[in-house]
Amino acid sequence: MKRIAVIGTGYVGLVTGTCFADLGNRVICLDIDAEKIERLKQGIIPIYEPGLEEMVRRNIQAGRLTFTTSYEEAIPNSDIVFIAVGTPEGVDGEADLKYVEMAAKSIAEVMDHPIIIVNKSTVPVGTGDWVADIVNRHKKNDVPFWVVSNPEFLREGNAIQDFLNPDRVVLGSTDREAAEQVAQLYLPLRAPIMVTDLRTAEMIKYASNAFLATRISFINEIASICEKLGADVKEVAIGMGYDKRIGHHFLDAGVGYGGSCFPKDVKALAHMAALHGCHPQLLRAVMEINRDKRREVVQKLRDLLDDLNGKTIGLLGLAFKPNTDDMREAPSVEIAHLCRREGAYVKGYDPVAKETARKALPWMEQAADPYELAKGCDAIVILTEWNEFKHLDLKRIRELMRQPIIVDGRNIYEPEQMAELGFVYRGMGRGY
Ligand code: UGA
């Protein structure tokens, strides 16, 4: 049993803190948002993450998980302190580190015994050294501390599973013993643990996300070529994936990646590279292809409808991916704006992202279900591959639409089947 503090109760901090508590540690989660902490104390979680609320409640009841807004309460009672605060996109794609800085200062001010500070937020390479410097400058007591980088590889919507069954745990530090102390926390998970230096650990996180984003842009470029040459990108990806060196993951062509991680991290890595005299050509192409994919969807609508002016477009799926209500960098936002700008009436439906979609697209009408969405639509665009969309009564959908046009931005349906049902159907990269 270790005494752990987690600063930041966003999805990374909350999942990390709760899972460590579930593994038998005593965890205190801290956030400066008093309202959020009050709700968390009652077991009400601020995000949609399957299984998390139940796990939070279980660990509160067991007395292993507590919440506070006070550094004076959290730090003196902990030996390992995780920083898991947000690092929003700042100027020029550079990560904004103001919350990391605030956390480091606040820890330093109340630190009264030796602690290990673990950075979990995705931070530019070199931030670990910077954090150590801040703590050194602000600490009131002369006690030793160590900084460890421990990047997270959690996917939203799958975060608990990813935490409990990691492919690897990466730890970076200038002090091997400190890294090994943190490694102890992960031993019950029986995952490969890699210990390296601080900067390398920080880089592993960016390189991993950038590589996954590259796979997506790669298959999306192949999709555009498939469309022109009459090949089917879905089958191409399957054929490629059998090669063990390639594998099947992250080769789903569609409207491109969104979310709070890939867009921000690829941009930040490109920015860091350029700042240090490198020319990140591949990263730039990855971002460009991703941007163009969203526009391509609107172009498909133009091709099918001649003109979007006065047409009704239904967006089926609004969240940036299934099993989350997260609308950050969701393709739906840009596509909704583009259609509206061309005079279309845009409405949307998502089974979970309702409140978040209202905030991101306040002007957009939201339908109560996919059938209500379909009513009077000249075209439906599928933007999130929620399972429930795979089992819709498509005949009913077609009857409710003004024109039976579907642009499937996630390739959830089969072109032949859709043609048989009487739809004018366009997928992404599925020939003509
Ligand atoms: C991603 C990484 O997968 C995690 O390992 C990482 O920890 C996390 O970012 C982070 O840095 O915090 P996440 O953003 O939750 O996780 O979502 P993913 O499931 O990776 O999907 C990202 C985007 O790529 C989504 O918009 C998804 O629709 C898109 N995608 C994914 C595709 O378009 N095609 C694919 O084949 C896979």
From TrEMBL:
Binding site for NAD(+): 31, 36, 87, 122, 156, 264, 328
Keyword Thylakoid set for record: no
Reactions catalysed according to its record: UDP-alpha-D-glucose + 2 NAD(+) + H2O = UDP-alpha-D-glucuronate + 2 NADH + 3 H(+)
Pathway connected to this protein: Nucleotide-sugar biosynthesis; UDP-alpha-D-glucuronate biosynthesis; UDP-alpha-D-glucuronate from UDP-alpha-D-glucose: step 1/1
Enzyme Commission code: 1.1.1.22
Domain UDP-glucose/GDP-mannose dehydrogenase C-terminal: 314-415
Keyword Oxidoreductase: yes
Entry's family note: Belongs to the UDP-glucose/GDP-mannose dehydrogenase family.
Full protein name: UDP-glucose 6-dehydrogenase
Lineage: Bacteria, Bacillati, Chloroflexota, Ardenticatenia, Ardenticatenales
